Amino acid sequence: ERIRALEEKIKKLEQTSTRSQGGGTGSMPEILAGASAYRAYPTRWGIGEKVYQITLGNGGSLRGKFDHTGSPGMMAVSSGRDSGKWWIKGGSLCTKWSKWEGSKTICYTLTKKGESVFASGGGLLSGKIR
Question: Are 60 and 86 in contact (CB under 8 A)?
Fold first, then answer.
């Protein structure tokens, strides 16, 4: 039940983000620049969730923030931000955060389905990007 609620929340955020962006007919860096991805994860204590918003900026800048709520519908009880860089290498999307994910480079395999782009690779950006 809780996972279904999180999936619905992410779906609504992604739909809002996708509508605000232009079409995707250029190269992969052009398609991804300005895209935002949303991820929600239950906390390890089972109370509340962390909701991440990650933006792939123009020129390779990477921005992220998260809010941690105590339970669904509550105001944020903690939050955080980070920044980094993103680039395309050999058809993969690579990211490196200043703090998150241990400041390690993580590369994702990209799959384009229609106007949507999906990343797989196990990090924060795994899932629908655009």
Answer: yes
Greatest CA separation for the chain: 43
In this structure, the strands spanning 105-113 and 49-56 are unpaired
Distances in Å between the alpha carbon of 10 and those of 50, 92, 126? 12, 24, 13
The values of phi and psi at residue 59, to 5°, are: 75, 10
pTM > 0.90: no
Bridge partners, 65 (sequence order) = 53, 81
Structure tokens of 105? 């480079």
pLDDT digits (tens, 9 = 90+) for 49-87: 778 888 999 889 999 988 776 555 555 445 689 999 999
Q: Closest by alpha carbon to 64, among 73, 77, 55, 75?
A: 55
Q: Mean pLDDT throughout 82-105?
A: 91
Q: How far is CA 29 from CA 15, 40, 44, 53, 119, in A?
A: 21, 25, 34, 19, 14
Q: Rounded distance, CA 18 to CA 12, Å?
A: 10
Tokens of 57: 């900026």
